Amino acid sequence: MAQVEIAFDAPAVDWWVLTPQIILVGAALGLLLAASLAPRALPGWVSTIVTIATGAATAITAAVQWNDWGSAPRSTLKDAFVSDGFSLLLTVLVGAGVVMTALVAHSALDRYEMAPPEFAALLLASAAGAVVMAGANDLIVLFLGLESLSIALYVLIALAGRRASARESAMKYFVLGAFSSAFFLYGIALVYGSTGSTNLSGIGGFLFGSIRETDYLLLAGIALLLVGLGFKVAAVPFHFWAPDVYEGAPSPVTGYLASIAKAAGFAALARVLYVAVAEQSIAWAPILIGLAFATLAVGAVMAICQNDVKRMLAYSSISHAGFVLVGFSAVPATSGLVQWTEGGGDAVSSSVFYLIVYSFMALGSFAVLSVVGAELQSSEPDASAHALSRYGGFARRRPVLALAFTVLLLAQAGVPFTAGFWAKLGVILAAVDARGYVLPAVAMVTAVVSAFAYLRVVLAMYAPEGSSEDEGGTPTARASRQRWGNLPLTSVFAISLAVAVTVVVGVLPQTLLEWSRDAILSIVL
Amino acid sequence: MGSLLAASGSGSDFPLLNALILVPVAGALIVALLPRSRPDLARPLGTLFAAIGGALALALAWQFDAADAGFQFVSQQSWIPALGISWHVGVDGISLWLVVLTSVVVPIVLAGVDPHHDPKPYTAWMLLLQAGSVGAFVALDLFLFFVMFEVVLVPMYFLIAGWGYEGRRYAATKFFIYTMAGSALLLVAIVATAVLGSPDSGITFDLQTLAEGQLLGENTARLCFVAFAIAFLVKVPVVPLHTWLPDAHTEAPTAGSVVLAAVLLKLGTYGLLRFGLYLFPEASDWAAPVLVTVGVVGVIWGAITAAMQRDLKRLVAYSSVAHMGFIVLGIFAFTAQAVGGGVIQMVNHGISTGALFLLVGMLYERRNTRQIDELAGIQSAAPVYAGVFTLIMLSSVGVPGLNGFVGEFLILIGSFDTRPVWTIIAATGVILAALYLLWAYQRVFHGPPAAADRQTADLRRGELLTLAPFVIAAVALGVYPKPLLNAVEPAADKLLEHFEEYSGFEVPELGDPVVVDHGDSSGEHDEDGH
């Protein structure tokens, strides 16, 4: 190493560590290439199969890697990217999310007039961004992941540009997303100015080693990072884009947006807070608690005010973000090191568990909406897309689908024997463990409030044909009772997968609890 | 004393309690999977499974060792070891009769009450309701209890929303939200109790470990108790948390009302005993004045409101509020007689109010109305119906010789020693009960019948068969309540012993057995332990 003459000292690359990203990006590029070189338009199923295979391969690779070195994290690119249990577990989640989104989208692409290869490529590119975010150990890399995720998503929504709502949605997401990226970048600059490093472990080591006066530069940097990531995870008061964007985006994309994009944002939040600036928890924990309060309350209260199911789910997704924040903010008040690792472990692992469980519930719910949306559109194209009144009698027409949706909604409400229950329990447990009582109590009260929102949908579905809870309403009168008839098979498969995960984890949560506990060891230690 | 090993199942090793929970669940799954073309199979098959549960419950009562005050038929399996949660079930004298009541009432109403439409989901929900309720009564793990307590909501919600009357959706949602609001706090309190009250060996949700350990600080325990109590008081319900009950009861289908009255309300009072007194003795003593007050307010309020009702079903619903108030008074009087009386009153209220709801439902089937002023002189047209109604009504009023008397009397006697003023006020509730029920009876059954009244058909054989177990139980337990008392007494004594040990409350000595000739005994007593 003595006489390296070249000006640029290229970092060593551990290709095997980067395999999940390479698979995702490679498949995306390959698809684009094939689509542009092919003499005729590629049939839709080709892209779908490629996407599913890629998602599955990513998840499997990550699982194998976790098995290889899960407890002893490996880093590469000069410690800019780390592959530990946390990033690998989230990579598996992203892979599963890609598979489910591709399944749901397969039958919906025509309806939204989206070109299959472009859709698939963008989906995979955004997934690659999410995976990078989960494993980034450097603020710059984190920003790159954030941008690849976001930019792909802007375009993904805009692909359905024939619809005015989608165009509006994409524009809104783009403007506000760019805005939040600017905040994030400025935060990076300030933190770098204060600590002299953009490397997360570097920052953590620097702060750990020194006893310092209050460093306003650093605090401002942390605050800006929180703002930037708060936008991504749609925490109140940075949530204003979410309901509009969720409502306007095509349902399969909304599911992806609500689950994977949000999970990636939270993953980044976990890394920044717990790896880099854990020592400053006195400063940021109260902010997180405040965000959690606001997010829970606004999400739940706004959810019950909605008369549109999709918009209701958008607000409910905000309130779920509040629950995740409850877990993250559950830092022991006296952060001595020993207690820190114990309490902090529970805090992050409960949030990870919540994220995984919530992702499946959200993917499943929006998959149902996608199927319902197609049916409603074909019966009455003009009426407002997912008005609650149009769900009247849904259980008569589609008993099995209605049952699946009911399970997913009850799981979101946190009914026992569903995964949502353990998720809520976990974050409450972590918060109580950190000796906070008001926040968990408020969280549970908001859970009741949102339960009302979910129940309204369930009631509407099981109401007799045409009568609706709300005044007026358009009876979608179609007497024929079809159990499976012309349901898109791929969507059915995706929904069954979501329901299966929800119920199985609901009855036997132990395995997933252990996974999420193992996953965060490298972060909080 | 509280050792887990000591309380091994008497009799065989057959996991009776698990079977009591799992048989209805299996039944529900099988019914749900029945082919769409054979909806007629659903109810018979469901009734069969429910009845197997009922038979197992009777076997449980038969094998139950009344002399043993501890938990029997205990079964414990690890469930989520990471959180110290286990599937831990057991039954003692307090829960035994509630388990039996649940397991017997559900098959009866399944067989006896026609849902009119969609028998398949209806039957499945009823079976799940049975499983969840039994599960809540036998759970010895805080967590398992909470899960069962919550799970019961879902079938009840769908039963009301799917098979109820005009205002069913409002009533169902109100029921769900009220109860869930209570249990939201309950979950936080359970978690706090487990986190803060677990021994050093690790977190546990085990009821016995936590209750025998008593590791919570005084203020923490009081806070947790308040959260527990709110959840249970909503379920009981006490005034002013009761407004969901008249709606839910009135709008629920007959079978739903019966199960709601006979079983679900008991979850509240049972919870107060098992998870209030046992888990938080000191806090129970601290909060007792308030709880006794709300109990007595419920007695009077429920009775007066019941007297004002124009809807017969609503009247019965409000009478529930009054009866349940008595039980709350009994529990927080802290004497063996009052607590024992409370447990017995839970069972008896289930029998008499359950039967009253059945009767009102049968009347509605005939007349399509429950308005008292649209009915008159039914007695002459339907004498048998009127006879059964009279008997059940008298049992609900608490006439000696019928079951309602035993519990109420024990509660009043037992409470007088520690809470004389409240007891005297509550005793007027007995008179009010006679007033509203007899007045309603007079208006509905006496007087000149209109044309429609004259055509009211009398009870059919099937309906008689449905009512027969209730009538037999009402008379039998009124005349000879000893088997009931024998099982309850040791468990109640043991619970109070535990309570006394940790609360500093001196339970007055009242002489041994819970027999009625001790009404005059008075020991040293202490108003509320401070």
Provide a short characterization of the protein structure.
The complex is a heterodimer of chains A (525) and B (530). Chain A is mainly α and 525 residues long. In chain A, 74% of the residues lie in helices and 1% in strands.
Structural class of chain B: mainly alpha
Average residue-wise pLDDT of chain B:
85
Radius of gyration of chain B: 22 Å
Largest interface, counted with CB-CB under 8 A? A-B, 32 and 33 residues
| Total count of helical runs of at least 4 residues of chain B | 21
Number of strands of chain B: 2
Give the terminus-to-terminus CA distance of chain B. Answer: 28 Å
Number of helices of chain A: 20
Q: How would you state the average pLDDT of chain A, rounded?
A: 85
Whole-angstrom Rg of chain A: 22 Å
What profile does the largest beta sheet of chain A have?
A: 2 strands, antiparallel
In the sheet with the most strands of chain B, the strands line up as 1-2
Q: Give start-end ranges of low-pLDDT stretches of chain A.
A: 333-343, 466-481
Compute the number of structural domains of chain A: 1
The proportion of strand residues of chain A reads under 5%
Please provide the count of β strands of chain A.
2
Shape of chain B: globular
Intertermini distance of chain A: 32 Å
Structural class of chain A: mainly alpha
Query: Into which percentage range does the β-strand content of chain B fall?
Result: under 5%
- H-E string of chain A: HHEEHHHHHHHHHHHHHHHHHH
What would you note in describing this structure?
The complex is a heterodimer of chains A (525) and B (530). With 525 residues, chain A is an all-alpha fold. Chain A has one domain. Chain A is built from 20 helices and two strands. The longest helix of chain A is centred in the C-terminal third of the chain and has 43 residues, at 337-379. Residues 333-343 and 466-481 of chain A have low confidence and may be disordered. In chain B, α11 (254-277) packs parallel to α13. Chain B has helices at residues 16-32, 42-63, 93-112, 119-138, 142-151, 153-163, 168-197, 207-213, 218-235, 244-251, 254-277, 281-308, 312-331, 336-367, 378-381, 383-397, 403-416, 420-445, 451-454, 461-479, 482-503; strands at residues 72-80, 85-91. Chain B is mainly alpha-helical and 530 residues long. Chain B is globular and about 75 Å long. In chain B, β1 and β2 form a beta hairpin. The two termini of chain B are 28 Å apart. Chain B has a two-stranded antiparallel ribbon with strand order 1-2. Classes of the chains: A mainly alpha (525), B mainly alpha (530). Chains A and B meet through α16, α17 and α19 of A and α5, α6 and α7 of B.
